């Protein structure tokens, strides 16, 4: 067979199984090669019966001592027992509803058995062992790869397709990892590594192969991020002659913090150098990133060009509009909003005004990416809450004009090692200072027994003129796999009963967009006292009058996410509070919540989160718009990440267009194409 052949044609894989494999993204033998084992079972060691231990899996070589006996225990349950022995002792085997086993085993013959051993009184029983003649070495006497399973597929199916794939693997299977780097890292050639991944002789060999493949993954990503950048670095940035911000500062209702000013200066310096600005503004929630964007939008408009600002939700886009419009208006700059939910006529008008250049600053959702939207002279693209967008979406936005400057804003603090990779294509400015007058949010981690007090506390905050958010992990009760988790619907119901005099709103992922917008606006306008929701409100919402955040089942959320939620309050001058339920959910939960109670520093929290949970949650398309990693674990493989990063740096410095590594270039383009809708040049 050839690597391009469909798995359907592998012996023993029919159309039905092929269908299931296709669902897993395994169409051809080449895909099967890429389907790595999730772990291995070491069945190489043969253990004498005398040395068996309770509760573990072992492989023994033993002779069948007597004819297996089957007993009918109850309806639908037959148990077959069989005694076997080796030189060191006796062992019972037990099979359930498996007459087949009994019929195959021959008295006096030696077999290899593999299974979990249980102590029963003074003897050991092996439960439902797998077995084969000792010479066979298919199920025992080797390292068995364990593939990720799905209903309807068995390990044996994966053995079949990977066997066929490995057999089809040509000697010189094209490797995108440059030879020099492979040698320098002392990695085996690709074909050999793939054989070791799927059919290792030893665990060390599997480990070596995994390391190579993980390196490759990180290297590809690191090169990809750099490549995205060099694509821009060759270009010039749009020329903005007048970079004075005096007028802008004059119309602002407050003076900017030092950190805000430094971030703006870093941007204007990049622009002044004639480079395309490619900068990430990272700042904790509420640090005032929007004003940095506003300053740059002003500069673009002042120089007769256009700026676009893209936010992940309609609500946020509207909020930005409400913040920026009055300021820009005073400066004589026209500003328009474009979101998907607008009426067609209204949308058409805006789109026309964008293409004619009548509008200088456009604020919107991903609607601005639409091919219908054409700018007259776009000079600046701002992407807010970047982690909600794909890398390629931000690339697509900059392609809406020539030499477009790019400003990216994110409140998700990321430990340094990860930031290097994730934002490898951007310069970074950090806003590490909150606007003056902010009070520390008083945070409490509580258990169920405190509920009546918290209910009264919610009521008191509302009575004092404040407002409260209550965030739940689920939308409705029926979703609950365990009944311990609170749903937004049930929580809203309960609060309506406990606090009948309070105006309570409910939004979650299934609320219709228009309705959601209305409820959020009611809350922002003070027409609601309490907003019960799922994490839909996590990002960027600004309601300065809200003074209380209550999170149900806080133990179900990541620490950085909880920190984000907490950032929804404490935006006004009044003392704000945050209550996390879940302190009674075990030591682990308690430690995580305690960290949040004691620190308000998003970076410290992110670091702790990474240590406690691993990098999985920081990664993947959802969090950062990057393709998910199959093998590499960013926390565990930090050293490997560094090496991959260095190798990528060295290569890209020598050959920024990757002319010497066409395969790598091709893989990079494919990588970003596969994981997002935007385009990639
Ligand atoms: P984030 O960084 O989370 O996007 P925002 O830009 O939404 O923060 O700002 C949060 C709040 O702080 C807004 O209400 C904004 O008007 C206000 N703000 C921003 N900068 C300052 C400042 N220098 N002084 C006072 N208030 C500010
Ligand atoms: Mg913001």
From TrEMBL:
Keyword vocabulary terms for this entry: ATP-binding, DNA damage, DNA recombination, DNA repair, DNA-binding, Helicase, Hydrolase, Nucleotide-binding
Annotated organism of origin: Butyricicoccus intestinisimiae
A single GO molecular function term of this UniProt record: DNA helicase activity
Keyword NAD attributed: no
Domain Helicase C-terminal residues, every copy: 453-616
Entry-linked NCBIfam families: PRK10917.1-3 (NF008165), PRK10917.2-2 (NF008168), recG (TIGR00643)
Protein name: ATP-dependent DNA helicase RecG
CDD domains in alphabetical order: DEXHc_RecG, RecG_wedge_OBF
Transmembrane segments: none
InterPro entries, A to Z: ATP-dep_DNA_helicase_RecG (IPR004609), DEAD/DEAH_box_helicase_dom (IPR011545), Helicase_ATP-bd (IPR014001), Helicase_C-like (IPR001650), RecG/Mfd (IPR047112), RecG_dom3_C (IPR045562), RecG_wedge (IPR033454)
EC number: 5.6.2.4
Catalytic activity: ATP + H2O = ADP + phosphate + H(+); Couples ATP hydrolysis with the unwinding of duplex DNA by translocating in the 3'-5' direction
Function as written in the Swiss-Prot or TrEMBL entry: Plays a critical role in recombination and DNA repair. Helps process Holliday junction intermediates to mature products by catalyzing branch migration. Has replication fork regression activity, unwinds stalled or blocked replication forks to make a HJ that can be resolved. Has a DNA unwinding activity characteristic of a DNA helicase with 3'-5' polarity.
Protein family (similarity comment): Belongs to the helicase family. RecG subfamily.
Residue intervals of the Helicase ATP-binding domain: 270-431
SMART domains xref list: DEXDc (SM00487), HELICc (SM00490)
Keyword Plastid: no
């Amino acid at each position: 067979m050839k690597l391009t052949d469909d798995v359907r044609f592998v012996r023993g894989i029919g159309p039905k199984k092929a269908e299931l494999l296709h669902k897993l993204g395994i169409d051809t033998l080449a895909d099967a090669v890429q389907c790595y084992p999730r772990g291995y079972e070491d069945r190489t060691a043969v253990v004498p019966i005398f040395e068996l231990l309770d509760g573990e899996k072992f492989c023994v070589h033993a002779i069948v001592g007597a004819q297996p006996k089957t007993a009918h225990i109850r309806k639908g349950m037959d148990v077959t027992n069989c005694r076997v022995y080796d030189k060191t002792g006796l062992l019972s085997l037990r099979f359930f509803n498996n007459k087949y086993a009994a019929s195959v085993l021959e008295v006096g013959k030696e077999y290899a058995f593999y299974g979990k051993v249980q102590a029963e009184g003074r003897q050991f029983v092996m439960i439902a062992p797998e077995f084969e003649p000792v010479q066979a070495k298919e199920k025992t006497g080797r390292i068995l790869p364990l593939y990720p399973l799905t209903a309807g597929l068995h390990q044996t199916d994966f053995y079949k397709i990977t066997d066929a794939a490995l057999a089809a693997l040509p000697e010189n299977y094209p490797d995108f990892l440059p030879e020099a780097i492979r040698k320098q890292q002392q990695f085996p050639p690709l074909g050999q590594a793939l054989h070791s991944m799927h059919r290792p002789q030893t665990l060390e060999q599997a480990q070596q192969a995994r390391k190579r493949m993980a390196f490759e993954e990180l290297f590809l990503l690191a090169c990809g991020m750099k490549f995205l950048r060099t694509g821009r670095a060759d270009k010039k940035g749009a020329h903005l002659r007048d970079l004075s911000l005096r007028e802008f500062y004059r119309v602002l209702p407050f003076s900017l913090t030092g950190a805000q000013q430094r971030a703006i200066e870093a941007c204007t310096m990049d622009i002044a150098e004639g480079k395309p600005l490619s900068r990430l503004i990272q700042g904790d929630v509420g640090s005032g990133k929007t004003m940095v964007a506003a300053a740059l939008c002003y500069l673009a408009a002042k120089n007769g060009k256009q700026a676009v600002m893209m936010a992940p939700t309609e609500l946020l886009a509207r909020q930005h509009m409400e913040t920026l419009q009055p300021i820009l208006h005073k400066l004589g700059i026209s500003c328009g909003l474009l979101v998907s939910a607008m009426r067609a006529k209204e949308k058409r008008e805006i789109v026309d005004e964008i293409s004619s250049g009548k509008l200088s600053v456009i604020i919107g959702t991903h609607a601005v990416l639409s091919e219908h939207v054409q700018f007259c002279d776009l000079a600046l693209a701002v992407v807010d809450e970047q982690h909600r967008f794909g890398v390629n979406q931000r690339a697509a936005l900059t392609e809406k004009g020539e030499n477009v400057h790019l400003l990216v804003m994110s409140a998700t603090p990321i430990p340094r090692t990860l930031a290097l990779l994730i934002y490898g294509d951007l310069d970074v400015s950090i806003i590490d200072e909150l606007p003056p007058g902010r009070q520390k949010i008083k945070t409490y981690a509580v258990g169920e027994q405190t509920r009546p007090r918290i209910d009264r506390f919610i009521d008191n905050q509302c009575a004092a003129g404040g407002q409260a958010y209550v965030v739940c992990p689920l939308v409705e009760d029926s979703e609950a796999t365990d009944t311990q988790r609170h749903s937004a619907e049930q929580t809203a119901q309960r609060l309506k009963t406990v606090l009948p005099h309070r105006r309570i709103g409910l939004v979650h992922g299934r609320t219709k967009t228009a309705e959601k917008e209305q409820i959020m606006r009611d809350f922002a306008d003070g027409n609601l006292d309490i907003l019960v929701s799922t994490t839909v409100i996590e990002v960027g919402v600004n309601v300065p009058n809200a003074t209380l955040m209550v999170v149900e089942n806080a133990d179900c959320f990541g620490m950085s996410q909880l920190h984000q939620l907490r950032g929804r309050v404490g935006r006004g001058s009044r003392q704000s509070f945050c209550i996390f339920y879940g302190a009674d959910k075990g030591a682990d939960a308690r430690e995580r919540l305690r960290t949040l109670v004691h620190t308000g520093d998003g970076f410290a929290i992110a670091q702790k989160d990474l240590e406690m949970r691993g990098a999985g949650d920081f990664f993947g398309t959802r969090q950062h718009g990057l393709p998910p990693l199959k093998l590499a674990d960013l926390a565990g493989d930090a050293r490997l990440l560094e090496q991959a990063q260095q190798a990528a740096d060295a290569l890209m410095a020598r050959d920024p267009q990757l002319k010497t590594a066409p395969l790598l270039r091709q893989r990079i383009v494919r990588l970003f194409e596969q994981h997002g809708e935007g385009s990639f040049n």
